[in-house]
Amino acid sequence: MKYLLFLFLVQIAFSQSSFEKAEKLFEQKKYEEAKVLFETYLKSNPNHIKTIEYIGDCAGQLKDWDQAIKQYKTLKDKFPKSANYWYKYGGAMGMKAKSVNKFKALSMINDVEQAFLTAAKLDAKHVETRWALVFLYLELPAIIGGSEKKAQKYADELMNISKVDGYLADGYINEYFKRYNKAEKNYIDAHELGNSKTTFKKLYDFYYNKLKNKAKAEKLKEQFDKK
């Protein structure tokens, strides 16, 4: 009996160390290696939710959209009130739609939209979902549901959650429609408020790549590097 207990404890310890090793590989962005270990761990722990999510995340990083969709579908079906699982499912579906022909993509758009809308409804403060909806409604042709008005609705919701994200979303919309003066002001407002690598990079890229104004870009970089 003691021997069996010992073997059981050893197996648990081995499983835990295997999961932790997989997590470290994931953090190191070694997604293929991490995925193999997570899949092995899942065989002996088939109901381990975090492992299923990690496998989906690894698949997404490796652009294996079918695998990512499968894992996230399992999660959102099991936890239908989890905004994050609906968001990840919609994201994987959206990326799959971008990788297939237009006719196939058209058949997927409604599922993508509904996944994001469900996530947004479940969590009024889910930032990533609202960004996804901004991107979606700008990229979709008007004939299948795209519109600036819809995108702006979720940019406004972002503004209520996070001023920085709100300004960045407004800037993205204005940049998309080539209203560059307004976009610049939005990005400046975001950077003055956030003063982060994210806000700096967005404004720097806007100056350097969109406006082709290297002088403004370099001046911004000098100011940011001093802080």
CA-based shape? globular
User: What radius of gyration results from the CA coordinates?
Assistant: 22 Å
Note the beta-strand portion: under 5%
Tell me the total number of β-strands. 0
Main β-sheet description: none
Mean pLDDT: 93
Q: How would you classify the helix and strand content by structural class?
A: mainly alpha
The N- and C-terminal alpha carbons lie at a distance of: 64 Å
Helix content: over 70%
Which stretches are low in confidence, meaning pLDDT under 50 for 5 or more residues running?
2-10
Helix tally? Answer: 12
List the helices and strands and how they pair.
Elements: H1 2-27, H2 31-44, H3 49-61, H4 65-78, H5 83-99, H6 102-122, H7 127-139, H8 148-161, H9 163-176, H10 180-194, H11 197-210, H12 214-226
Helix pairs in contact: 1-2, 2-3, 3-4, 4-5, 5-6, 6-7, 7-8, 7-9, 8-9, 9-10, 10-11, 11-12
